[in-house]
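Troubleshooting: if your tokenizer reports a length mismatch, compare your output against this known-good record of 401 residues.
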Amino acid sequence: MTPLAPPGGAARAGVLPVSYRSAPVADVRPQRRDLRGFLLSGAGWPYLLVPFIPIAVALDLAGATAVVVFFSAALGVIPTAALMGRATEELAARAGPGIGGLLNVTFGNAPELIIALFALGAGLHEVVKATIVGSVIGNILLVLGASMFVGGLGRERQRFSRTVAVSQSSMLLLAVSALAMPAIFELVNGNGLPAPGVERVRYDTSVEHLSLAVAVVLICSYAAGLVFSLRTHRDLFNPPSEEEHDEEPWSTRRAVLTLAAAGVAVAAMSEVLVGSISDAAHSIGLTEFFVGAIVVAIVGNAAEHWVAVLVARKDKMDLSVNIAIGSSTQIALFVAPVLVLCSFVLGPNPMPLVFNGFELGGVLLAVLIAIHVTTEGESTWFEGVQLIAVYAVLALAFAFA
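Known-good structure output:
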């Protein structure tokens, strides 16, 4: 979900439709065939990973190796995040456009936020910052690149709203510029930037207070963006949908209970994931920086990423671009500042927004590329290949860092 996605949009591909669960007893065989078809479809594949939820918990309690526990928990996060997305969309549809849009943007990146909060509580500040940067880079380069590539196959070009895309990209550039300032301050007046994979827990109070002030400014900017996209320019960002939905809508009670259950499941998987991340990274010979920036950033919202590619294949590039760039904007303007604020009461020390050189270089390059590819309002499959290639280069650099 993204801050600009209309209710019933991006996350509609989530959980098992009601029609599959309410079939008469006499239609058991057709129901089973329909269920099998749904689970093997582009919309239902996340729920094939549901068994990894109890598997991860069991392995953790049994004291299995950290690598096995980590990857089991990572796979278990995917269906819980998909279910949370679907429940949020159903609740937003019931609440109406205004409150519905607010619910979408509030819970849009909830799985990533929950994972980061557990890492924050464990004092893994560099993992948290790597996940923030990895999510922004992954959305812009990997998700948007895959969407352009898959959607562009067999088509000369695809078109999307240039105005909305450029507006989102500009917001993202402003947010990333603000996020970079504490690192520049530390580089000039402090002890320099941290090395990748090195956990620094103590910074001067000046950079901590600067990060706090930057976080407040970003959250105020985010609030202004909500008013802009949900009220004053709502028609621009949320055009009427021409798609008809045959599925029976969820009741408010069902949506709330499902959202609560999904939140508990995401929290459980996050605790297992964070608890094994350090030992797992050491066992496979990778830094926590790489694991946070690449692995955790991808699995935190893998279901929504797949939706972006799926709708691009259906030639709905407006929605696909909205998911990719809009989600990055929400992470930079909302998730990162909230984590900074929470770090003052959660974990051993406050977390200043001091990113390492690889993180700064990667996120700035990604944002500049996003602005470049969205200025024309059209895309081809070859542009998608180029974006994926840049992501691969950055991932290799992170691995060697």
